[in-house]
Amino acid sequence: MSLIHLEDFIFRAILAAIGISIISGSLGCFVIWKRMSYFSESISHSALLGTSLGFASGLGMHFGLVMVGTIFAIFIVILQRKNFLSNDTILGIFSHIFLSLGIVVLGFIGGTNTDYFSLLFGDILSITNSDIVWVYVILTVLGLLLIIFWQRLLLLTLNEELAVAQGLNRDFYQLLFMLMIALAVSVSVQIVGVLLITSLLIIPPAVARVFSNTPSSMVFQSVIVSMVAVTIGIIASMFYDVATGPAIVITLGVLFLLSQFAYKKLI
């Protein structure tokens, strides 16, 4: 690889990583506050079906991810309203169904050109200029939604009974947030892969929580932690020739352990 191509490749990877870090760092705080880690894990499993259907239909991976993520979120909200099974049971059932369907579809359409390892664990070599445009389009959409609905989402997160008493539609905002997570997942697959997306959503906020005393400061610090970890992980994956996703998650794990050590020192 020539120096010019290498520099272009690094620039694309870092640019995409920054956008994804802002998305995952901010939404991840709500995942932590709302205790929806299992939902984010479930929707990341469904991403494999979205990816495979996107390839099968010829409409592209991103379209498949958004389509399946949206269907999954709507399906979960409808089933949660029935109250005949607990949320974690519903999520556990359908996340594995969607994951298994994704594996089966990939088995039918897969060939020698299908890189299963990169789908599961990420591949920065696959990032193109159109992928970067997609990342920042989704970042703009999610950023606007967070700005517009920040107070209402925060109120529903911190005091759901008060929010409902004030007339907020709990199901609407629950579905809105799930769709936002689905969009976040759709742009993160190429960096960390299907199996490790949840780590990017929950570990940066967990680190930031140690040093934050307000919701806004936690979001800001979570984004910074995510940026640092993703950048270090990408550089490590290039120089040591390891998968991008695991390199990022290991970096996040180190930062989390350091934050816990710092917390013990602070108290």
From TrEMBL:
Membrane protein topology class: Multi-pass membrane protein
InterPro entries tied to this protein: ABC_BtuC-like, ABC_TroCD
Predominant localisation class: membrane
Keyword list, A-Z: Cell membrane, Ion transport, Membrane, Transmembrane, Transmembrane helix, Transport, Zinc, Zinc transport
GO-annotated biological processes: response to zinc ion; transmembrane transport; zinc ion transport
GO cellular component, one term: ATP-binding cassette (ABC) transporter complex
Family membership noted in the UniProt record: Belongs to the ABC-3 integral membrane protein family.
Descriptive protein name: High-affinity zinc uptake system membrane protein ZnuB
